[in-house]
C-alpha cells in the first residue's frame, strides 16, 4: 500500500503510531492507543503505549480483558475520563 511505499509498515508495527505522534509533537507518555481488536492491542504493545479497548467494536469486552487491554470502556463518553 501507499504507506508501506513510504517505509511505514502496517499494524501491529508501531510505525504509523510513531509517525502520528511525531506530527502531533506528542510524547507517547502523553498519549493512549484506542482500539477494538487483537491487532490494535498488539500495536499498542509494540508502541509501548497504554491501550483503551472499546467493547462495542470488532471484539467484545471478554476478548479485550483476556488479551491485555489496559482499560476497557463500554460507551464512547467513558473515554473522556482518561483525558481530564
Search tags:
84 residues, alpha/beta, Rossmann fold, three-stranded parallel β-sheet, 4 helices, 35% helix, globular
Based on CA inertia axes, which overall geometry fits?
A: globular
Q: What is the number of beta strands?
A: 3
What average pLDDT do the residues reach?
95
The H-level CATH homologous superfamily, spelled out, is HAD superfamily/HAD-like
Task: Report the portion of residues in β strands.
Answer: 5-15%
Mind explaining what this structure looks like?
The protein has a three-stranded parallel sheet. The N and C termini lie far apart (37 Å). The protein is an alpha/beta fold and 84 residues long. Strand 2, helix 4 and strand 3 form a beta-alpha-beta unit. The protein has four helices and three strands. The protein has a single domain, classed as HAD superfamily/HAD-like (Rossmann fold, 3-Layer(aba) Sandwich), CATH 3.40.50.
Summarize the structure.
With 84 residues, this protein is of the alpha/beta class.
Layout of secondary structure:
Blueprint: H1 2-5, H2 15-24, E1 33-35, H3 38-46, E2 51-54, H4 61-66, E3 71-73
Parallel strand pairs: 1-2, 2-3
